[in-house]
Amino acid sequence: MASEPLIVERLVLVIVEAAVELVPRSISDHPSVRKYAELRGMRPTEVILDRSYHHAAMRGLDEAYKRGRPDISYHILLDAVDSPLYGAGMLSLYLQTRDGMIAELGHGVRLPRSYHRFVGLLEDLYRKGAVTDRNGKPLMRIRRMSLKELFDALSPDTTILLREEGVQTPMEELAVRAASARNPLVGIGGFPAGDFSHQVLGLFPEHVSLGRTSYSASLLACRLVYEVEKHVIMRGMI
Questions:
Q1: pLDDT over 80 (residue 3)
Q2: CB 92 within 8 A of CB 12
Q3: Phi, psi at residue 212, to the nearest 5°?
Q4: Which of 54, 109, 142, 227 is the most buried (most CB within 10 A)?
């Protein structure tokens, strides 16, 4: 592939249809949910849905196989914020939740190294709309917003969805394309099984597959960030 000018100013990574949501009211009276909430000193509808604790209650939920896995988003974000690209302010991170919210990570954020503390951070985020560190520095904010509204606000010049059924493309080629756009946006699934909704598929003009093997979302995100990072470092931008 011919080399292209590297002009990227910021890579936007969106965790799409993340398996993150508060416990739905329809299962809030289930014994497993009530017990878990009581142990945490919270109301059932104030806790994050988690299959590890709410598996029995989730059996009656629509698309249960795609829900209750906030750990997927946690691992993606944890690796992303450790990257030099994020440290240089050239990586923006967003999370589209199952219940119609968009969460945005601040700049220079250090996420909790404990998964349980991360879940607590999400629960605080839902209650307050925004969370800060001890010095008042913004960590995350959340608001009701559709994916299309987010795209309209960000105005990316390249929009790509990582999807197993997409056009097979080497990671290196994808990274060059991303680094050759000024404001590229890449979507990656935040759910454990199944496919994206028709609404999401229609928002992304390009669907890219990185091979016939199924990889974890955190690995794909980590590799993408690293490959874009290499091009940026070669240009002396970080």
A1: no
A2: yes
A3: -75, -20
A4: 54
- 3-class secondary structure per residue, 51-62: HHHHHHHHCCCC
Statement: residue 4 has pLDDT above 90: no
CA-CA distance, 100 to 150, in Å (whole number)? Answer: 12
Angle at 64 between CA 59 and CA 198, to 5 degrees: 150
Residues 112-125 as b/e (b if ≥16 CB within 10 A, e otherwise) read: eeeeeebbbbbbeb
The helix/strand/coil state of 31 is helix
What is the pLDDT, as a whole number, of residue 136?
Answer: 84
pLDDT (mean) for 133-146: 90
- Looking at residue 133, its pLDDT comes to 81
Nearest to 188 by CA among 157, 216, 229, 158: 216
Residue 117 identity: R
- What is residue 28's predicted lDDT score, i.e. its pLDDT? 97
Residues whose CB is less than 8 angstroms from the CB of residue 114 and which lie 6 or more positions away in sequence, other chains included: none
Cβ atoms of 162 and 189 within 8 Å: the answer is: yes
What is the mean predicted confidence (pLDDT) over 182-195? Answer: 96
DSSP β-ladder status, 11-18 and 184-189 = parallel
Mean pLDDT of the chain: 93
Stretch 112-139: mean pLDDT: 92
Q: Which of 52, 50, 46, 153 is nearest to 94 (CA)?
A: 153
